[in-house]
Amino acid sequence: MTVMAEHTSQMQVEEFEEIASKAPETVMLEFIDGRIGVKSMPDGDHATITMWLIRQCIQARPDLDLHPEQGLKVGSYRNGRARADGVLAPVAHLAGQGEWADPSGVLMVLEVTSYDEDTDRRDRCEKPSAYAAVGIPVYLLIDRDSGTVVVHSGPDQEGARYRDVHTSRFGEKVKLPEPVGMELDTEILKNYVP
């Protein structure tokens, strides 16, 4: 019989929010699964990819906004805080919600991998689970390490994972399922990887 150790949180979410509010603008903090983490500041290619996706969304879905670097309440009972590279929601949906928005009504979150030691754990493991847990329909991961676009969709009823995961190479056309309902031509992404 395997006994799982009970995970304890490093601090209360209110303590994290206090620390995050006092962090310099050059530091982005997250609080996922009871642990505080530092998110790398985006490099030029990372920011360019985010801006490319903003333009794609505006052209294909002018009824939606893609908010860069938006904080979201994630995790069990909202006791986590993730700062997504992009949050897609109806126009003005996040107005008045402050730094850490409620994820209800969010259609998609975007993450672009950074070249740091925490990317694998954070963007490929923890965040898909956290975003699925709060019922965000689509998680789009632009993985610069592998040159792929990974579309996670259909969060399961238990909220532990996404049921559908589709991986495409940079250069392929990628369909973002409903409720996003658009297609991306990812050829340009080849320009933003080493």
How many helical stretches?
Answer: 3
* SSE-based structural type: alpha+beta
CATH superfamily: tt1808, chain A
**Strand elements, count:** 11
Q: Level of helix content?
A: 10-25%
CATH class: Alpha Beta
Oligomer: single chain
Strand order of the largest sheet: 5-3-4-6-7-8-9
Number of domains: 1
User: What is the averaged pLDDT score?
Assistant: 83
SSE run? HEEHEEEEHEEEEE
Low-confidence stretches: 1-6
What is the rounded Rg? 16 Å
Amino- and carboxy-terminal Cα gap: 47 Å
The third-level CATH topology is tt1808, chain A
The largest β sheet comes out as: 7 strands, mixed
CATH architecture: Alpha-Beta Complex
The dominant shape is globular
**Content of β-strand:** 35-45%
Describe the structure in your own words:
The protein starts with 12 loop residues before the first helix and ends in a 9-residue tail after the last strand. Residues 1-6 have low confidence and may be disordered. The strands form 3 sheets. It has a 7-stranded mixed beta sheet. A two-stranded antiparallel sheet has the order 1-2. It has 3 helices and 11 strands; from the N terminus they run αββαββββαβββββ. It has helices spanning 13-22, 44-60, 119-133, and strands at residues 28-32, 35-39, 64-74, 80-90, 100-101, 108-112, 138-143, 148-155, 162-169, 173-176, 182-185. Helices cover 22% and strands 36% of the residues. It has a single domain, classed as tt1808, chain A (Alpha-Beta Complex), CATH 3.90.1570.10. With 194 residues, the chain is α+β, with helices and mostly antiparallel strands.
